[in-house]
Amino acid sequence: MSAGDHTGWQAALVSAALVGTSRRPPPPPPAGWPLPDTDRSEQRLLDSAALWQAAVRAGLTPSPDSPAAPAPPERHPLAPAEADQLLRLLLEQPPVPAVLVAPLLRQWLGACAEHRLVPDAARLPALLDRATRDRSVRAALARVDSARLRWLAAANPDWRLPEGPEEEDPAGATSEQDWARLPASARPAVLRRERAADPDHGRELVESSWGTDRARERAALLAVLAEQPHPGDADLLERALDDPSSTVRAAAVAALGRLPGSRRARRMTERLAALVTVHRARGLARLRSALPLVEVARPGEPDESGVRDGLDEPTSGSRTDHWLTQLTAGTPLSWWTEQLGVGPAEVWRAVTEPAVRQGLVEATGLQQDAGWATALWELVDRPPASWLALVPAEQRERHALQRLRADTARSAATAGRRRGTLAARQVGAEALLHVPGPWGEELSRTVLDLLARAEAGTGALPVEVLATRLHPAARAVLTDRVVARETATLVAHVLQYQSASDSIREAFR
Amino acid sequence: MDRWSRAQVERVAPDTAVLAAARKLATPGPWSGCGANEVLLWGRCQGSGRTPYQVSVDLVAPAWRCTCPSRKVPCKHALALLLLWSQGALEPGGTLAGGDEVADFAVGWSARRSARESVATPGRTPDPQAQAARLQRRLQLMDAGVEELALWLGDLARTGLGAARARPGSWWDQAGARLVDAQLPGLAQTVRDLGSDVVSREDWSEHLLAVTGRLWAVVRAWRRRTDLDADQLGDLRTVVGWPVPRDEVRAGPATADDWLVLGTHRSDDGRLQQQRTWLHGRRTGETVQLLDFAAGGAGLPLPQTTGASLTATLACYPGHRPRRGLLLDEPRPADTPVPWPTPRTLAEALQQRADLLVHQPWLTVCLVHLAGVALRTDPPARLVDREGWSLPLTGDADVWSLAARTGGHPVDLVAELTGAALRPLTVTGAPAVTGLPAGAAVVV
């Protein structure tokens, strides 16, 4: 018997069952089907159902179908078994805190790609899950040239992976329509991503919704533009200086401050130039000192245009000092070197006015000027830690070390027992954030040594910064050392990371 | 005794938390007085207390003993000891190599265990009169319960499935609870499951009608139960949840054979963990299932290694194929491997089940060995055979794991066939392009 031949009966049976036999009697069974004799219609329905369900199961047939295109063969050999074991551990039972898993996965995938190997196919679903959640892992996974990986990623719409080994993430380019639909809270992150790929497109997105966005949203988007301003942003920012909202105007001023080629920078330069007189050394004086003398007059109350450009009232202290600093910070640093015909260090020596010097320090940070940061590092008292990112790489570690030692000495002198966050204490450790890894052995040893003693604020450094930047050989510092209780966990995590990282390196050797 | 692989140790872990804790302990630091012989592992692990925990592991009939207070079985200490052993740390020359001299606590435990095993069976002779009275009481309860179910089904048919669907979940639960009281737990579960199925399933009307028909067939069969032969009654007892005592099964005929482990399926519904292991006999050609259950914190026994050939003696529960077996002795590796049963097309596999259904109308799950089936991942995920037919996968199947390992290439596959869906268990043969090792059984 087969249920397939009796579809009409099945339909009638189901519909009778749905409304109940009190309203509709069950259909008579197909001829020849053995049903017990009964005059109770509900029993007849149940008997029919019993027969029907047995017939359906016994008569089940598969559906006609065709296979889909299978994965092409792998072109590269499999990663070694030890490496696979480590990968499995990272994915299933990570031996390190969660924030350190992604860097280790990136290292594993990087080594795998570099050696032209492929991961065991059994790990691919977990890797793709991970890559979907984590952009950095996705980029690393995309560089692995595995045919199975790409086949699998294409088959599951939940997984995202850039197309080819070297291609850009296609998930980029957000259209203006998509942008318009994005919730305000999601926009800064999307804008940041767009800006990294194409600064102009990012700005166009901001402009596309500018007219309808609320003041708070406009200010938040300008803040993202200000992170890495682009000359093309100048027009939008210039317009934003006339924005009805003071928050938006302030955000525009901040962004323009980082664009030395803008019209605002020109106006600030004109205002400053009117106050500055350069006395060049002549005659015998020139022999004694090549330095010109810079005389700076006090600025007057800013006019309407000055206020528009961000000149404002100080919260405390001298108003003219404040404006001088603001004018200097807003003027391109190149103006000084051109006017005086000397380099940054000489400009610093020639300018004695403290408010102007303060402006030069701010301008160096705002304009991200590597030349000025390098030249002024030794001249300025406690240059901002963020300058470390600007100075040449080979000087960074030296400066950071100096800073760390100075701070350790100072804190030993004051013997202050106050604890606080890194930012609040402004200690040398903060400088380390601006020194990209991997760190040299000397710096690493110093940091680990301080960490073991829980000094100089090193205990407040994020574990992922320490783990990924410290030099592996620096661990020797900890041999036979008792680590301070405050930093014991942090040190343990760093060591766990380094040992896992060593294992990965060895597994691929 | 061959050292277990890391994966084998991991499979014994009751949950991942214990395993993670065990990994942390699997360093030489806290261990002392460790050792291993052919049968036992032992060691002392320094925990937070003053006295170290005494850990013993029986490798032959996997069992564990630890003096720690953990209720996890095996606990992290036993697992850590196994991990250390699997890494070779307990071998001569390993970091924890001990003597051959077995620690006293391990000897004592092992002796007590074997004593208990041998005594357990003939230990107590139950009072036959009391037993007969208990059986009589249970039969009365079950008879009444089945008749009450008959009335309930009649009401359902009269008032209609549409009306039943509108009932709250508690209505189904109540009907289930009455069947529990009537000592018919198998039927109770079926009815309780209906309560959620009617709201969650798209084909709820056909499904409800099919289950109703099936329950009605149980009622009809129960009323004739005195006319049924032992196997028919055995099948019916499984459906209603009236278990056959193990001692009765043990006393029945035994089958000594070499068995190939085809695959294992583990499930956990939150209250009960179940492990179903499928074995295929070399001589008998019969496929039997071993069922293990565990509730609460207790762990399931170590699953047999898929693809392994074992020599063992089984007794079977009364019933038709695929029968449920019970191991009578501890399996040992067979001298020669048992060949895999011939893989079939989907149509043949369905025909095999239809043949089983002739005798076993209550069949819910059976095992099939499929030839050259390729996975299609586009929903509904399904397996397509070389003749161009397909069946969908069960909802709990790990589609992406199978996709990753096979790359959509046709492979020979052991699967459970349940309803109209397949649950893949083991890849038994794959072309080289998949990258799967030739001739190895790969659990999916």
UniProtKB/TrEMBL annotation, chain A:
Skewed-composition ranges (Basic and acidic residues): 298-311
Region (Disordered) residue spans = 1-40, 59-78, 159-184, 298-320
Q: Return the Pro residues bias intervals.
A: 24-33
- Extract the InterPro entries matched here: ARM-type_fold, DUF5691
State the signal peptide span. none
- The organism sits in which domain of life? Bacteria
Give the matching SUPFAM superfamilies.
Answer: ARM repeat
What is the name attached to this protein's record?
Uncharacterized protein
The species is Auraticoccus cholistanensis
Lineage per the UniProt record: Bacteria, Bacillati, Actinomycetota, Actinomycetes, Propionibacteriales
From TrEMBL, chain B:
Q: What GO molecular function annotations does the UniProt record carry, in alphabetical order?
A: zinc ion binding
Record's keyword annotation contains Metal-binding = yes
InterPro entries attached here?
Znf_SWIM
> What domain of life does the native source organism fall in?
Bacteria
Q: Which residues form the SWIM-type domain?
A: 53-86
Q: Per the record, a Pfam family?
A: SWIM
Arranged from A to Z, the UniProt key words for this protein are: Metal-binding, Zinc, Zinc-finger
Tell me the protein's name. Answer: SWIM zinc finger family protein
